[in-house]
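Retro notes - structure team

What went well: the batch runner handled both jobs without manual restarts.
What didn't: labels got mixed up in the shared folder, which is why I'm recording both outputs here explicitly, each with its sequence directly above its tokens.

Job 1
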Amino acid sequence: MNRHLPPPYSRRDFIKMLTVAGGGAALGLPALAAARSGRHGMAGGAAGRGAARDWNWLVGSWDVWHRRLKERLVGDTRWEEFPGRSVLWLAMDGLGTIDDNVVDLPGGSYRGLTLRAFDPGTGQWSIWWLDGRHPTRIDPPVVGGFEGDVGTFFGRDTFKGRPITMRFRWQDIHGVRPWWEQAFSDDGGASWEINWRNYFTRTDAAPTPLPLLADAPSDFDFLVGSWDVRHRRLRRRLVGSNDWDTFDGTLVNWPVLGGKGNVGDNVMNLPSGTIRGIGLRSFDPGTRLWSSWWLDSRTPSTIAPPTRGGFADGVGTFIGDDTLDGRPIKTRVVWSHITARSARWEQSSSADGGATWEPNWISELARKT
């Protein structure tokens, strides 16, 4: 789901409780096709049941040793080394993960976050990266899977204005020091330049949240914790319908990016069946605005376009562009009625550029912890 006061549990209290785990072929690259036909080369539920264990080995808290090429795709041979830390939680019943990172570059530390989601239809994982220094943008995903104890993932991006292919590899995943490798290719995968390797040393089997930053905003402090949620959803949008479904759900939310971001793991028990989703928010200190993204378990290879906005007088308003049945619309989300133990989330759509709005989803939150 996409200041407010939160006794009996503050944000800092709650993150102490989060020390339990929980809370391709289209590129024309042979290795990606091989990864796709690996142990998840099956349809539907069987693939999901297997994939839900793919990242169990990475759950917990880690010290990370980085080795990074100073300049990329210029023939450089100079490397720099520096430390970091990483914490990983499972989400969406194991078919998603969130990891939060501190990267201690020689020029200064920064925060970053990885979001992963498995698509049972393709048997592949999508992996996205959000760099805390560029909090309004999520990088294009790499896509792939595991073959034995090696994970291989490919994607397309640009680097300094030129198109590249990216490759991620995880190796020694069940060893004492798993490691990750990033490589770039500017010739369609004919040759690769390795530019970053990370070596992981476990510090705790449970994910211990990373420290908050002193200048982290307090806007979403109210949302940190565990919630019961009562949903009311319009069955059909922007067609004059007045038929609503009512159902229950849960939400667990915790801070990331030093408190300049937060993540929510959602369960929604719709009449048609249970769905899960991840809400991700990040704060831009330059504009003082939040970006809010949604990843739905029914379309796990795609992150919905963000809404953006902020809080004024205890009410948060966020607006973004989207599509519905192929036509452009606007989406508005409003957080209101915020107390120590409750909050209200309301989503509306507009087909006329925001001149009028139709509410289509209302969620009433009641705090559990």
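Job 2
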Amino acid sequence: MTGTPLPPLRLGVDLGGTKIELIALNPQGQVRWQQRIPTPSGSYRATIEAIAGLVQRCESELGESGTVGVGIPGVVSRQTQRVKGANSVCLNGQPLEQDLGALLGRPIRTANDANCFAISEATDGAAVGYRTVFGIILGTGCGAGIAVDGRVHEGPNGIAGEWGHNPLPWMTEAEFPGPDCFCGRRGCIETFISGTNLARQYREHTGLTLAGAQILERVDAGEASAEQVFEAFLSQLTRALAHVINLLDPDCIVLGGGLSNVERLYELLPKRLPGYTVGGECATPILKHHHGDASGVRGAAWLWGR
């Protein structure tokens, strides 16, 4: 489609392990159509056929065509053109862009779901007007994406923004060497600053098994043990973000995911970051997401621009 006018719709697909969501946006960002269906379990072919079926149904009902962007829980290798690193393992090793493109008769663009979050917030969300955006998702795990001038920055290996699988910076003696990570290493940032690991740290501290949201409720209630665990989480998040600022110095950082709804983060992080950034200064805005859970699917739509 390079050099030719784009069709009137931007279709975005959020491909998750349990659900597939499609959204159709007009160039102004207004939702024209939206639907979710269950993800076929364990079948690559059934998955891409389900996506194609959603696209065809949307275009038939609206009477218009669109570009198609897909957010995936992994990346497409720029060397092999096949999916790698997806936790939906049936996608790994598959030429998703080519196969889905063949079913729909058009080129497809894909990006990691965290990159889609960054693109969404940079295009018409919390980070509008910022050139370099670092978007992080603090949920069950933690992921990150980079948007520059409203476009995904992936790098030649397709892994730009894989911040969660670097070691936690400036580990304390008590933190070192860190928990085992599913990536095969230990001490990764993700093993500290995610809802899963907030629960782990609380369990290790108290012996009680609670979900991240329950722990945060106890923080708000002033429970001493919950406050202590949250303080450790805040320290770890501060160090992890300072590491990004020292390397990339983004124009802003946008937080998403369930843990991003803790309002104290937006007050405390700016105060703590100068303690770890080079020169002892930090003017980087820490912003709360605008589109929430919809950022992933909206970002997939904006992979083609407006």
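One thing worth noting from job 2: Residues 224-247 form the longest helix (24 residues).
We'll revisit the folder naming next retro.
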